[in-house]
Amino acid sequence: MRGSRRSAGLVLAAALALAEGAYAEEKWMEGAGVARAEPGEGATGPGRQAALQAALAEAVQNVAVEVLAAEEAAAGKPPSEPAALRERAAKALGGNPSAYVARFQIRDDRGVPPRLLLTDPDAKAEYQLVVIAQVDVSRVRQKVGARPPAPAPPREEDVPAPVATAAAVPGGSAAYLVEIDQIASYAEYAALRQALLEKLGAQKAEPVEFSRGRAVLAVEAPIAAAGLPAALAKAAGPGVALEIAGPVTPERVPLRVRAPGKSPPAPSGLTR
Fold first, then answer.
1. What's the pLDDT tens digit per position in 253-270?
2. Which CATH number fits domain 165-258: 3.30.70, 3.90.25, 3.30.1490, 3.40.50?
3. How confident is the model at residue 254, as a pLDDT?
4. Which one of 87, 130, 210, 235 is CB 3.0 to 4.6 Å from 108, fit for a cystine?
5. How does pLDDT run across 15-37, given as a tens digit for each residue?
6. Cβ neighbours for 217, distance < 8 A, ≥ 6 positions apart
7. Is the pLDDT of residue 149 over 80?
8. Considering the domain 14-149 in this protein, what is its CATH number?
9. Please, what is the end-to-end C-alpha distance for the chain in angstroms?
10. Domain-wise residue ranges, the chain
11. For 149, phi and psi rounded to 5 degrees?
12. Is-contact 215 240, C-beta < 8 A?
C-alpha cells in the first residue's frame, strides 16, 4: 500500500496512531519539554526523546488541570492552587502520558543549546522542545476521577473566529510578547508560564525565544498589556518577584525577575 509522506514539521507518533475521530472529545494543547543532553547530540539522541516525553506530559497535565479546575467550579468549591491540581493530575495520569495523545506536532525544536533551564549543575547542555498535542479529554477526565460536564447550549463566543493581525483578538483578548529577563532557573520560568495559563486565563503562552536568563513568550490573554505586569506579579506569588523592565506597549511587555531581598526601584513614569 502506498502512503503519502507527511512534512517534517508534522510528526505522528507511530505507536499512538489512531483512527480519525476515535475520541469523543479531544483538545489541542501546548506543552514544553526540556531534558539533559550531551553537547552536539543530534535529533536521534536520548535527550530529544526525553524532552518530547516531557512536552507531551505537560500538554496532557495541562488538560487534566483544566478538567479538575472546571469540576471544582461546577461544584461551587473554592479553587485549588494550580500546583496542587498539577500534582494531583500527574499522580493520577502515571508515567505514560503519551497514552492520552492521539497525535502531536513539533511546534518548535530548539535542539541542544548550553544548559539554560535545567538546574542540574552537571548538565552541560539540554534539549528544548515545544509540541502541540491532541489530547483525549474523555480518557483524561476518567483517569483523574472527574465527572463529565453537564451539556450546555452552544455560545456565540465558542464559535472559532480567525485571529486578527492586530494586537487585539476576537473574544476580548489581546496578543503581545512578554519578555522576561534575569530568570534564575527553570522553576521560575515554569512558575511564570503556569501563572499566565492557569491563573490569568491566557489562551496561549508559547515560548518563542530562549537565551541564558531570558525567555520571550507569545501570549494571548484576556488582560491588556498595560495591566499584565501587576496581574502576573500577583499571580506568580511571593516566590517570583517581578518588575517592569521598560516601556509597556500594546505589543510588548518587558519584565525582569528581581533578585530576592532587592527592593524595587522607585517608579519613573512607568505604569505600575
1. 999 998 765 544 444 444
2. 3.30.70
3. 93
4. 130
5. 333 333 343 588 888 988 899 99
6. 177, 178, 180, 193, 196, 205, 206, 207, 208
7. no
8. 3.10.129
9. 63
10. 14-149, 165-258
11. -70, 155
12. no
